[in-house]
Amino acid sequence: MPTSVVEARRITLHTAAVFCVLSFILCGPSGAQSLSLPSPVTLTANQDHQNMMDQLGIKKLREGPSGDENAPNHANYDESKANPFPHLPEVLTLNDGKKVTTPAMWWNLRRPEITEEFSREVYGRVPKHTPKVTWKVVVTDKERIGFTPVIATKLIGHVDNSDYPLINVDIQMTVVVPENVDHPVPLLMMFRRSELPSPAQPQEADLERINAAAKALLLERDPSLQEVFEKYPAYDPIASQAKDPFAGLAAIMAGADPPTDQQLVSAGWGYAAIDPASIQADNGAGLTRGIIGLVNKGQPRKPEDWGALRAWSWGAGQGLDYLESDAAVDAKRVGIEGVSRYGKAALVTMAFDQRFYMGLIGSSGEGGAKLNRRNWGETVESLTGGEYYWMAGNFMKYGAAEATFGPKNAGDLPVDSHELIAMCAPRLVFISYGIPAKGDSKWLDQKGSYMATVAAQPVYRLLGAPALGVSDDYNEAKMPPVNDGLLNGKLAWRQDDGGHTDAPNVKYFIKWADKWMKAAP
């Protein structure tokens, strides 16, 4: 081999080695590793949706109904057309046709069948190996909610991304507990933005010192600001950020309910606010990011991979891991709450994570408590189209009009939402809705959710837990009057006269749950 060629190769190898060493020094092991990793795939929601259709062999999906009642393809609100599949999968019959007659058969045989079918066909599978989450306290603050002093802790749960440093996931959660309580408290975890309720602020004299220092720093950087400060002598660069702990007091004095946070802490409960967006984005374009993207190393999902609902519920479970280490919290009495899409996520959380003691499921609709087989308002086709990313890719099969496997519809689903509710048995589940006149749209199908709740009753009774206390005939089920709840069992239902919120039902939920917690051995 010519000397010049050998020398050139030697120089090339030397350069590569130096580059690798510098990468290790500058970036650390993960930084050096990331140089060899593929970048996360970037797709629009439409591109990702098409990618999943291609994987499944779907050529055409049925169009979902419109929420506009004047549109040609408006959603059905005719009860005579609402039940094209009147017979639900039998919750206490095994796939081989045998009847489930004992609790052992439920736990060992039937429940695992249902869990598998929901994981494979509806919500997706949580990977067998998910990264470890390390919780770090950002700040602990003594605050006040209404008249109750509280300790508020803001946390970040960092998801180990050492295997794929190109995606970072930091779960945001705030935990609030009453200060003057000498025992661990029950706690309601809520899917919502994580923020301190009423951050303590500097006293007036301290704030003046801070502003004086801020002005001095600003003048040092830009002396011309002296003219501005002289023109506005009362101006302070930093204003107090204090929140009014008595916000809404006038409304309360007029007879309105206190805010949910205030009701919880005044009842001796704590609460946690966990931000779903910090776990997984609420859109299809985000599926190659967040926890789903991190586990998939930035690549698109496969048909059985988890969707956003299951990802959010996984994040809630990581939050519960932290709460199990918090001496101020009774980790055996932690509940989960959410409204609308987060109501769906709360029900999924209760069903799959048996550590959660109770759930307040607000206005959850399709993909939550509503029967998939009901043709009323939002339908399966709604979730195989626009909100496909909430679900497993496999769920799209049930909206297929043309596919290599033939057409499928809601009647082909192996499971339905009554079985999702039944998976929560015998724990406490409170299904909450408002009324269409106040904004809890007909689209959500309050009746279809009541039917599902009724159809879940046999499992509660099999496990020795009282349920709604009404007939199991879900097709003939009549919803109780508005504001007349069924709250005597561990499975509860109440439709209030409010809108798209569970706030009017919170006081009933607390009283109902307290009763069962006091009754527990």
What are the SSEs and their pairings?
Elements: H1 3-34, H2 45-56, E1 58-61, H3 103-123, E2 133-145, E3 148-159, E4 170-178, E5 185-191, H4 204-221, H5 225-231, H6 249-253, H7 260-266, E6 270-274, H8 290-295, H9 308-323, E7 329-339, H10 341-352, E8 358-362, H11 380-384, E9 400-403, H12 417-422, E10 428-433, H13 446-455, H14 457-462, E11 491-495, H15 506-519
Parallel strand pairs: 5-6, 5-7, 7-8, 8-10, 10-11
Antiparallel strand pairs: 1-9, 2-3, 3-4, 4-6
Helix pairs in contact: 9-10
* Physical arrangement of strands within the biggest beta sheet: 2-3-4-6-5-7-8-10-11
Q: Estimate nothing, just give the exact number of structural domains.
A: 2
Shape: globular
The rounded Rg comes to 27 Å
- What count of helical segments does DSSP give? 15
> How many DSSP E strands?
11
CATH architecture grouping of the largest domain = 3-Layer(aba) Sandwich
Class per helix and strand makeup: alpha/beta
